[in-house]
Amino acid sequence: MEIFARNGVVSRSRETLAHILEAVNQTKAITRIASDIELFVQEYGMAAVHLRGIHRKTGLVVIIKVGTSSRENSWTKKLHKVMSDLVPKVYASGAKLGNIKVHWMAMEAIPFGLGDSWKGKEFDLLLDAGIRFYQASTKINDPTLLETTQETVKKWLQRSLIKRPPGPIDNLLAKVYDHWGLIDEKCGREVAFDDFHLANVMTKEPPPNSRSAILIDIHPRRQPWILDPAYLQVLNSNDPNRPGHKNLISRMARKRKDADLRSLESDELEMASKIALGWMAARQWKPEVAKKQPEYRAVYEKFISEASEI
Ligand SMILES: Nc1ncnc2c1ncn2[C@@H]1O[C@H](COP(=O)(O)OP(=O)(O)O)[C@@H](O)[C@H]1O
Ligand SMILES: [Mg+2]
C-alpha cells in the first residue's frame, strides 16, 4: 500500500493510518522496545505521522515518527552522541515498517512544546538550542549534505512570484546574485538547522522553568547561518505585541559571538539581515493568511521592500 500522498507527505486518511498502526505492530525492532502503541497524529506535523507507545523497560512514553528520512535518522543519532541534551535519544530506527518502505524512528518523548505560554522565553530557548546545534554539527562529517546556493535562493524568489507577494519582488529577484555574494561573503556557509521554527523544539520542563530546549525534526543544510533566525523572524512577526519576538537575527548574532562562532555586527549585520528577511518573506508568503490576518501583508511588504533597497 502507498502511504505517501501526491505532495510527498504521509497521507492521513483513516485507511492509511490504520495500515501504519498495523505495520508498526508488525515491526519487531519497535515492539521489542514499546508496548501499547497508538496513533498520535500531530496538528503541527507536516510530513510525517506520529505514534506513541510505552517503553517496556522504563515505562516512559516512546514517540514513533513514520516518514522520516535516512538523513534525519542518522543526524539525530549522531547529534545525540555528540551532545546528548540537544536532540531526543533514538531507541531504534529503520527504512521498512512491516511491508511498507518508509523511514521511521522510535525516540524519547519530550513532553512540552514551545509556544506563547513561555511569555517570550521560547525564542531565547530556541536561539540557544540553535547555537548548540551549530557547535555540535561541526563534529559531524556528512559529504552528502544538501547545500543552499544562489540558484536555490533564485528559485525561492521565482517560485514566490505566482503567489504575488507584496512589495518590489521583481527588484529583489534582479539583485539576487549581488545579494547572495554579500551574504555568502559575510556569513560563509556552515551546517544550519534550516527548518528553524517553534514547532521543531521541545522542552523537558514546563514553562517557565526550562533552561534549555531539545531540537526535533533534524534536516540540516549547508548554508549561511543568518537564514535560520531570518526564517524564524519572518514566521513570528505578525503580532507586534508578542513578547520576545523582536530582533531575532541580531540576538542570534550576539549569541554566536559569545560562543566564538563566526558572527556579524553593526552595518554589515543590518544589511545582511534585511536581505535574508526579504528572501524569507518572499519564500514564506501565503496569500490565504493575508485574507485572515490584517497585519500580515504590511509586515511582509516591509521585509521585501527593505531588502530590495540594499
Ligand atoms: N520526540 C518527541 N516528543 C514529543 N513530541 C514530539 C516528538 N517528536 C515530535 N513530536 C510532536 O510532533 C510534532 C511534529 O513533529 P516533527 O518531527 O516536527 O514532524 P514533521 O516532520 O511532520 O514536522 C512536534 O511539533 C511535536 O508536537
Ligand atoms: Mg516539524
What does this 3D model show about the protein?
The chain is an alpha+beta fold and 310 residues long. The protein folds into 2 domains: 14-109, Phosphorylase Kinase, domain 1 (2-Layer Sandwich), CATH 3.30.200.20; 113-308, Aminoglycoside 3'-phosphotransferase, Chain: A, domain 2. The protein contains 12 helices and 10 strands. It has helices at 14-25, 28-31, 70-82, 121-137, 150-160, 169-174, 176-187, 227-235, 248-258, 266-284, 287-292, 296-308, and strands at residues 34-39, 49-55, 61-66, 90-97, 100-108, 112-113, 190-192, 201-203, 214-215, 221-223. The strands form 3 sheets. A 5-stranded antiparallel sheet has the order 1-2-3-5-4, with helices on both faces. It starts with 13 loop residues before the first helix and ends with a helix. The model has no long low-confidence stretch (mean pLDDT 95). Adenosine-5'-diphosphate (ADP) is lined by residues 42, 44-48, 50, 63, 65, 88, 107, 109-110, 113, 199-200, 202, 216-217.
Helix-strand layout with pairing:
Blueprint: H1 14-25, H2 28-31, E1 34-39, E2 49-55, E3 61-66, H3 70-82, E4 90-97, E5 100-108, E6 112-113, H4 121-137, H5 150-160, H6 169-174, H7 176-187, E7 190-192, E8 201-203, E9 214-215, E10 221-223, H8 227-235, H9 248-258, H10 266-284, H11 287-292, H12 296-308
Antiparallel strand pairs: 1-2, 2-3, 3-5, 4-5, 6-8, 7-10, 8-9
Bound molecules: adenosine-5'-diphosphate and magnesium ion.
Strands of the biggest beta sheet: in what spatial order? 1-2-3-5-4
CATH architecture of the largest domain: Alpha-Beta Complex
Number of domains: 2
Bound molecules: adenosine-5'-diphosphate, magnesium ion
Class from helix and strand fractions: alpha+beta
The biggest sheet, with number of strands, parallel, antiparallel or mixed sense and barrel status, is: 5 strands, antiparallel
At the first level of CATH, the class of the largest domain is Alpha Beta
- Uncertain stretches: none
Helix content, binned percent? 40-55%
The total count of helices amounts to 12
Task: Write down the CATH topology of the largest domain.
Answer: Aminoglycoside 3'-phosphotransferase, Chain: A, domain 2
The value of Rg in angstroms is 20 Å
Helix-strand string: HHEEEHEEEHHHHEEEEHHHHH
Span from first to last CA? 51 Å
Number of DSSP strands?
10
Strand content: 15-25%
CATH superfamily of the largest domain: Aminoglycoside phosphotransferase (APH), C-terminal lobe
